[in-house]
Amino acid sequence: MQFGIFTVGDVTTDPTTGRTPTEHERIKNTVAIALKAEEVGLDVFATGEHHNPPFVPSSPTTLLGHIAARTENLILSTSTTLITTNDPVKIAEDYATLQHLADGRVDLMMGRGNTGPVYPWFGQDIRQGIPLAIENYALLHKLWREDVVDWEGKFRTALQGFTSTPRPLDGVPPFVWHGSIRSPEIAEQAAYYGDGFFANHIFWPKQHTEKMVRLYRQRYAHYGHGTPEQAIVGLGGQVFLRKNSQDAVREFRPYFDNAPVYGHGPSLEEFSRETPLTVGSPQEVIERTLSFRDYVGDYQRQLFLVDHAGLPLKTVLEQLDILGEEVVPVLRKEFANLRPAGVPETAPLHPAVLASQEV
């Protein structure tokens, strides 16, 4: 099973100091966080894609390409690649290039984002969000698997005899997750292609996540890709850790209370009770994370959000030390012991797919 972190790349004022990092600092700090993730033995670093303040990751492949050059083992991914407002031809080219630079350590997560105005900025209509996601991914899927593509759709000009370059590394396209908070159509899309489904698992109660994952598993089996239990599932999550829970709650509360996304709403206690947010000791995070299996089944990837809401770099790096030393080793062991035979441990990423083709 793979464990890692994801970032949304927000530039947020630290409520305890009143200081706001510059965009330059935030970008450089994001690189430092990714390098720390590899240092402490995590598997995955994923970045979002946003094109508006207060976020900075508007060019995921640039960021990930730089990180690729400074790491050896870390899987580089996205927590959102905007399939609705990016040209699928450019996605095909950019991520294939990144795949070559990273020697295959690349996958990506398709999503529609959380910012409505991004649609007209890129010449699209938000009312067409789901149809755009479906059509654009159909083209992307084809571009990575066919050397010469003829294509005609509703949302972009037709292609005739087109070849995207470079071709995927070793002829193996990057593995794709389809990420969603609320849309069953995206779970259906993931199942249709036999791709992974990533449940955001941050803002909604567990009952909602359970329904979305169950739908994906059922439809994955319906399309003949395997049993429901063999479907490839990833979960998001939020944690803040200290040696004891009282210190964790006291330190994190001002960041939670002022966070752009959920600040000035439900209390930290209410949000922690109703969503997977876990603020506490390493043991509490371990127990809470293991409980996710009770309602989504055995899954393949767990990503944590640890660097949002104005948390200073020093604190984030401390969080990664705790995750790497005290939390993830226990989770690896426990999830492995619980996993039945025949259920994949990880997603089918480039090295494993290439090896299977060479047998």
TrEMBL record:
Pfam families: Bac_luciferase. This is LLM class flavin-dependent oxidoreductase. PANTHER family: BLR5498 PROTEIN, LUCIFERASE-LIKE MONOOXYGENASE. Residues 1-294 form the Luciferase-like domain. It comes from the Bacteria. SUPFAM superfamilies: Bacterial luciferase-like. Keywords: Monooxygenase, Oxidoreductase.
